[in-house]
Amino acid sequence: MIAAMKPSYAILGATGAVGREFLAILEQRATPMRSLRLLASARSAGQRVDFRGEKLTVEEIGPKSFEGIDIALFSAGASVSKEWAPVATKAGARVIDNSSAFRMDPAIPLVIPEINPQAIGNARIIANPNCSTIIMNMAVWPLHKRHRVRRIVVSTYQAVSGAGWSAMQELEHQSRAVLSGTSHDTGIFPHQIAFNLFSHNTAIGPDGYNVEETKLVQETRKIFAEPNLAITATCIRVPVMRAHSESINLTFESPISEVTVREILTEAPGVLIVDDRAANKFPMPLDASGQDDVLVGRIRQDISQPDGRGIDLFVSGDQLRKGAALNTIQIAECIGR
Length: 337
Known about the structure:
alpha/beta, 2 domains, six-stranded parallel β-sheet
């Protein structure tokens, strides 16, 4: 039914960092739609937003907000998603949720369109993976598909954009304060983020892994349909405004050459190789910011694995685009075809 006509869209969390990216990407991609409704909390209701030459008014979320909506894009936090996703689906909408609320529910697909679009099916709720999971697996999946990966060791360098608009402002304000020698407070983060870095500020479990690290492990296994894939992660917050970077070490089941890795990644959708050893030019968050592709470089044989089964990579990807809003909209476009 949706494919027969242009779908009607709603965005919940329209005034947040990801919500703003939803609007920018929908406009840039000229995504077909019949109408667009912007939803947020009472605090943001009444704001006026430019979209495709019109001024749209943000509405307060309510019981009737999803009437007549085909596709609802959610980015307002897990508790909000749990409250309003059932309301939206009951009204007939299909929900694509950018929070952690439904990711590990076995009945709800967790989708990266370049990897498992077939998982969407007729699901009424589709979960968008964590940003770090998406950025890592845009590079890992094409390799795994051709030469099975046996183990992944990943360290992330996560920009403040992952914690939302207020966190981005906090980095800016703290940086100005430090450089001017004035006092400053912490707010979104537990430690000073300006000119500093620290372990990702999510709760630590009894196994010593924080929530972000556990997400990377569990979500990758679900997306790959590989429940026993060996993965370990260390997630770090860094004083970068936008775009996450990750150092990835892979162990394959059989030997694989650096040349083969380059060939596979050159053909992979959504990936751009940036790997100029002579110029010492590799993926950087500054270059990845505002880009749809995930940048991949530092491609080299792991010399600690003399049997040729080890490969090292470094990636950078825009957390607000492919790591969040773009992936969500790509899922919506799959539904709307």
